[in-house]
Amino acid sequence: MTDGARERVEAPVARRSRLGTFGLAGGRVFVSLLSVAVLALTFYGWQTLTAAQANLTTTNVFDNKGDGIEPLDGAIDILLVGIDSRTDAKGNPLPDEVLARLHAGVEKGDRQTDTIILVHIPQDGTSATAISFPRDSWVEIAGGYGSNRINSAFAFAYNETMNSLTAQGETDEAVVQEQAKVAGRKNLIATVENLLGRPSMIDRYAEVNLASFYEITKAVGGIEVCLNAPAKEEKSGIDLPAGVQTVEGVQALAFVRQRHGLPGGDFDRIQRQQAFMSGLARKMLSSDILLNPARLADVIEAVQKSVVLSEDWDLLEFANQMRGLSGGSIKFHTMPVVGDARINGAAVLQVDPVEVRAFVDELIPQETEGDPRMDPPAGKVDGAEAYAVDIYNGTGDAAMGDAARSLLAGKGFGGDSHAPMDPISSTVVYHAQGEQAGGELLRTALGGDFPVEVDPGLPPGTLAVHLGSDFTMSAKNQVMADPGQVERLIGTGHAAVRQDGGENTEAESSKDEPITAGGVPCVN
Fold first, then answer.
1. In the predicted structure, residue 444 carries a pLDDT above the cut 90
2. Which of 170, 388, 445, 498 has its CB 3.0 to 4.6 Å from that of 415, i.e. a possible disulfide?
3. What is the C-alpha to C-alpha distance for residues 318 and 77, in angstroms, rounded to an integer?
């Protein structure tokens, strides 16, 4: 409220003895008008969101997920993806003059994802945790594509689907493109979930492209950022001074895209992206947007043109859930990596999945995911001492056999050692004839919704488990298996503490606090 408006409210009260009831009535009139204005603005906001919902570009990446299948705790987990695409959300090519202004270059055609961020929002909507995944992280790619950079997960499925549909005689380019993009999105989601050991964790998907940064930053009137030093680099087109400044359009895109010439390489670019997102969140939560109908309409129009959202994402419900969010309660983190490596001649970042899962479990505890089956009981399990367990390790990770044996021994099961087997994708628990209760006991102890089957060849009192690539060790299970095995990773940036006692690389050395949307962080 302006000072002038405050005077108009307070003045009638101050002059009550002279103006009598007219002064009081004037105050009531003003308050009533203010209430009507607020209600009108609220109505406009809801009307605008309703119109936006009807004109959004959506994608069906969750199949059976929808309004009827939500996390039991009401939390929302969004995979936010920035894709190297020269089309808008509707699939229309961007004009050449726009591409030239964006310094976009020539599209490679493999649809790599340069930005991958998981955003977790609890049910009360008062905070948000965002975790960035470095694009060069060497991980297991879902869909049977083997190990590769995480940013190739989309491209593998996209290209295979395009080639397959073309070979089958599909001539409608729009159909081919849409099905290929859906396949790519699904494969990326599955790859992230597999890395985290959280099947079906992600329930929202948002995809932005080159045009998104340009359109949205123009619509909000620019984003405030801060650079530690001047930045000028030809490939991205960035040309910005040091210090706090507002960027929009071409320079906003250059700010988040620059990779060459940065001391920390891709990690510095990730910090740029996080700083940009924190500024965007801060701007969107400000009165400049929320109390400005024209500006809000511009933002929604920009989102409709350049953003793709998953189907069944109710924006009205989402906005209501987020009403208590403030900038300072949005924190950005970066997934830990072991260090730099060269694999098949390519520069990549080595990743320890156990380390990553412990890091994510600390930030987003398993219990908040609402699936009690994923939270195995602590300590010894009643009845476990009656069974010996044969472990066959088909995960492809030799260390997982020892970890599973230690885990089950800690829960009271008998058995010695473990044996390797050919890699399998799905874990299966086996029990002797008539001893299904023992199989269920073992499944619960392992902490997963694994199938339990009878094996007539097993002697009474013996259980078996064939560990597949879907078997993961939650942070709680890791500590139970070996309390000294995993060091908790709390709220650092992209750095991770090495478990082997080795010296950290330059990429691991940062110990900065997480970026939040409560201020303007200065970055390289």
1. no
2. 388
3. 12
Mutual angle of helices 173-196 and 353-363, in 10-degree steps: 90
The pLDDT assigned to 377 comes to: 45
Average pLDDT for 121-143: 88
Between 369 and 47, the more confident residue is: 47
Q: How many residues does the chain have?
A: 524
- For the question of whether the overall pTM of this predicted structure is more than 0.85, the answer is no
The two three-digit tokens of residue 52, written as one number: 């936006």
pLDDT for the residue 254: 84
The per-residue pLDDT for 218 is: 85
d(CA 155, CA 191): 12
386's CB contacts (< 8 A; 6+ apart) are: 438, 461
Residue 188 has pLDDT above 60, yes or no: yes
Tokens of residue 307, six digits: 């953003």
Burial class (CB in 10 A: 0-12, 13-18, 19+), 213: buried
Query: Residue 89: its pLDDT value, please?
Result: 61
Tell me the β-bridge partners of 246: 224
Query: pLDDT confidence of 483, banded at 50, 70, 90?
Result: very low
% the chain with pLDDT above 70: 67
Within 13 A of 491's CA, how many CA atoms are on the CB side?
6
Question: 443-447: which pairs have CB atoms within 8 A and are 24 or more residues apart?
Answer: 444/373, 444/376, 444/377, 444/381, 445/376, 445/377, 445/381, 445/384, 445/407, 445/408, 445/411, 445/413, 446/376, 446/404, 446/407, 446/408, 446/471, 447/373, 447/374, 447/375, 447/376, 447/474, 447/477
DSSP 8-state symbol, 275: H
Contact partners, residue 168, CB within 8 Å, separation at least 6: none
User: What count of Cα atoms within 13 Å lies in the side-chain half-sphere of residue 516?
Assistant: 12
Residue 32 has a CB neighbour count (10 Å cut-off) of: 10
Distance between CA 373 and CA 327 in Å, rounded? 34
The 10 Å CB-count burial string (b at 16+, else e) for 179-201 is bbbbbbbbbbbbbbbbbbbbebb
Which has the closest alpha carbon to 327: 280, 273, 362, 269?
280
Q: Please say if the pLDDT value at position 430 is more than 90.
A: yes
**Alpha-carbon distance values, 126 to 80, 129, 286, 467, 493 (Å):** 19, 11, 16, 39, 22
Long-range contacts of residues 214-217, Cβ cutoff 8 Å, at least 24 apart: 214/98, 214/102, 214/249, 214/250, 214/252, 214/253, 214/306, 215/302, 215/305, 215/306, 216/280, 216/299, 216/302, 216/303, 216/306, 217/247, 217/248, 217/249, 217/252, 217/280
